[in-house]
Predict the 3D structure of the following.
Amino acid sequence: MPGPSTKEGGRPRPRATPRSRSSHLENVPLSGYTRFGIGGPADVLIDASSEDDFQATIAGVRKSGQPFLVIGGGTNLVVSDDGFRGVVIRYTANRIGAEGNLVTADAGALLQDLVDFSIDRSLAGIHTMTGIPGWVGGAVYGNAGAYGRSIHQSVKSVRFFDGETVREFNNEECRFHYRDSIFKHRKEWIVFSTTLELTPGDEAELRTKADSIRTVRDEKYPPSMKCAGSIFKNLLFAELPESVQRQVPPGLVREGKVPSAYFLELVDAKGMKNGDIHVADYHANLIYNVGQGTARQVCEVINNLKARVRARFNFDVEEEVQYVGLTGM
């Protein structure tokens, strides 16, 4: 774990580390960088491990005129079987530091490392997110959460690159919503780090709660399973058509949301198969790759399920996954 953090402008910053040069690989299969294990090659893959490296990389790629794309840990990506003709860039800085109840993490840090870091310091607020795969930047981007908590409830500020300069937004400016943030709508803005304001707790109690959650999560989404977790967002009950609201059992509504799996199960999603892409027979909102599945097969299953829900209930389920190199989704 990082040592004591330094302070800039009244906010904790992770301890400085020596500047590293970016790594540069060519003709890289993106299947190795997504949890689905799917995706053709990128012409170039660059990992930038500092803010300076990242900005220099962006400037160089722009100057070359090549198309480019920025990704994170790849846990929520469906990448085209044809890959990406251009440069894929990842911001891989992964420092975590703390001062009191303020914890700052780089976007490339594993979310699980951040969860463990906070629990080790008896800080509550994100312990329910244990077991969620991916990086901190993606968690902020998609406002990740579980068990009644979302990361936005702890975010004090987000430091990001807007394509020209480095800026910092407070919580309100990030426009967080259920599994959403301003960064999803301004994809040229790249999260560099976030500062969380957590609350004091009991380390043993937090660890016990986190371990319990992790056990349940690993049973539902085994770490070795090639999947993106839940494919579709849960539904906000208040936003459903009234005719649909009347069909939802009251006990199913939790914290104002209805599981997408409820509607997917009613349209016979469980157990669907399309080649090596399967819908779990125990969870209608879990699509996974049993071997050599393709992005085309994933998209066919997703579109099939969306069409079934639309035909029966007259509303659309919305994906949590993001697409790379795929159009019309």
The longest helix spans residues 295-313. The radius of gyration is 20 Å.
